[in-house]
């Protein structure tokens, strides 16, 4: 599915993987789960998801998440471009592209 990073507010057809892949992980080609916040420990840590033992009744736990945008810029360097096409339109024809055409 090419539209994995699209939301109801942002309907662009982009993959969830940022340009250049994730740091020390690479391209995301399987199913994934987004978590709010962070997880403790090393990257690629196995997470076990289970039902909560407590009843959450605080406002922050009960709010509906309204996801508007997923940032897919590169996590290396300055990270200015969301897609490869956007980067090529800004940078123009590069030496490696000219060599590939020859």
Distance between the termini: 33 Å
Main pleated sheet:
none
Helix content: 10-25%
Q: Mind telling me the C-alpha Rg?
A: 18 Å
Tally of strands: 0
- Sketch the topology as an H/E string, one letter per element: HHH
Number of continuous helical runs? 3
- Classify the secondary structure makeup into a structural class: mainly alpha
Name the descriptors:
single chain; 102 residues; mainly alpha; 3 helices
Description:
This protein is mainly α and 102 residues long. The protein has three helices and no strands. The model has no long low-confidence stretch (mean pLDDT 81).
Q: What's this entry about, in short?
A:
By secondary structure, the chain is an all-alpha fold. Helices cover 19% and strands 0% of the residues.
Describe how the helices and strands are arranged.
Layout lengths: L58 H4 L21 H8 L3 H7 L1
